[in-house]
Specification:
This protein has one domain: 3-Layer(aba) Sandwich (Rossmann fold), CATH 3.40.50. It is built from four helices and six strands, in the order βαββαβαβαβ. The protein has a six-stranded parallel sheet with strand order 3-2-1-4-5-6, with helices on both faces. Helix 1 links the parallel strand 1 and strand 2. Helix 3 runs parallel beside helix 4. It is globular and about 45 Å long. It starts with 7 loop residues before the first strand and ends in a 23-residue tail after the last strand. 36% of the residues are buried.
Length: 191
């Protein structure tokens, strides 16, 4: 279990969907500071929230975000993409890997010194699609499977540094990202 009360928490992709809900839950659980990481900073009415420009594929933004964070107890890697595809376009697969796998890896590595200092935790928001591919988003599913393996490897490697690593395997969630998909895996097109 990851304790939030009194802790500094960074949430990537915190501007909408699951990320926004995570920000609100961290505040409800009395986090002392919530760093809200998004590609472009957004305003938040709670004084405990510090918006950060943090696109997970932008190494310069990652570096600046690290410089802006004084201390960190919990890193929640939530940013991600899910594009409809049929595995016919390698660029779509690469885009999923860039955000969902390498973006999470780069953010984790960048903030690792702060997490080691605090004996903190990494929480990677994955998906049940890591185990059971969703037919209309196979590149997403492949990237989440790779991220699950990365998460398991980080768990084993970082424990000796006092950092715990957790995987959250969400199922279907009613967000902007999943708005056009129904539970059977078909896509409803609106014309």
């Amino acid at each position: 279990m990851v304790v939030i009360a009194g802790k500094a928490v960074l949430i990537t992709g915190g501007n909408r969907g699951i990320g926004r809900a995570l920000v609100e839950e961290a505040l409800r659980r009395d986090a002392s500071r919530v760093y809200l990481g998004t590609r472009a900073p957004v305003e938040h009415p709670d004084g405990r929230v510090t918006p950060l420009a943090l696109g997970v594929t932008d190494r310069e933004q990652i570096r600046r975000a690290v410089d802006a964070v004084e201390s960190l107890d919990v890193l929640i890697n939530n940013a991600g993409i899910a594009l409809y595809d049929d595995l016919s376009d390698r660029r779509v697969i690469e885009q999923h890997l860039a955000v969902n796998l390498f973006g999470t890896y780069d953010v984790t590595q960048a903030f690792l010194p702060l997490l080691i200092r605090s004996g903190g935790a990494v929480v990677n928001n994955l998906s049940v699609n890591a185990f059971a591919p969703f037919p209309v988003i196979p590149a997403y599913s492949a990237s989440k499977a790779a991220l699950f393996n990365l998460t398991q490897s980080l768990r084993a490697l970082l424990t000796e540094h006092g950092v715990s690593v957790h995987a959250v395997l969400t199922g279907p969630v009613d967000t902007d990202m999943s708005r056009d998909a129904d539970s059977r895996g078909s896509v409803q097109l609106t014309v």
